[in-house]
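<instruction>
Derive structure tokens from the sequence

<record> Sequence and structure tokens follow
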Amino acid sequence: MSKLDRYAPQAIAALRIITSLLMIEHATMKFFAFPAAMPMPGPLPPIIVAAGVIEIVTGTLILLGLFTRPAAFLASGTMAAAYFLGHATQGFWPALNQGEPAIMFCFAFFVLIFTGPGAWSLDSLRRNRTAA
């Protein structure tokens, strides 16, 4: 066992927290033009609004570490759909179709489905209360 293994829960939590904050940032661009407006002319199409709702809800749940696994499952699937519907149609290579962030989000959330939230989560507080 590596000396670093004992820090795995904290590393997973850091991945969870930073990834969810970045996901929430995408939603706030859609709905609140913060930190900048989403570069799209006119009103947002319904599929983008739906994606934004999923981003803000799952992003917040994952940030808090609450219902992390199901939220990560939904977030991962949403990012896979975003890639295949929005980016892959623009060409094969992710670096050229700007799909790299969607792929990275998809797989970061995919990992959280299996690892759980790591340290510093409401899921672990709920689990400890249930055990007591």
